[in-house]
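REQUEST FORM: STRUCTURE PREDICTION
Request ID: SP-0412
Submitted by: Lab K.M.
Chain count: 1
Length (residues): 149
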Amino acid sequence: MTPVEVEVKRLSHAQGLPLPRYLTLGASGADVAAAVTSDVELAASERMAVPTGLVLAVPAGYEVQVRPRSGLALRHGVTVANAPGTVDSDYRGELMVILVNLGRESYVVRRGERIAQLVVAPVVQAAFRERDELGLSDRGAGGFGSTGV
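STATUS: Completed
RESULT:
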């Protein structure tokens, strides 16, 4: 499998931190680190945009999804608020990770800590067409919980 090349610009506050990296051969997510300049407290029920100090140039036809790290979520209740976050191919600002603390205690985000994982995925854009009527389906208009438990 040929990797998709994503160009990365490191901002000054990310000096000394690793680029996103896969920690195992089978990993689909590359860990990304917090580029905070000092420890930051994330109180229970609070959310904040945590800087990574990185700007990504995602190739056309792809996106980067920002996903939670399962260990942070399980141990501390800290997750990505808009999971998965999306980095579009035409965005050239700093990658920020919106963390939320769903736990009962404060959590301290430390410089260099792995706070999220990045998954590169292909994008398909749809052509939305308005119609007066739509074809029928087995499910119909059944909403939440309509397919059983």
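NOTES: Residues 70-76 form the longest helix (7 residues).
Reviewed by: T.R.
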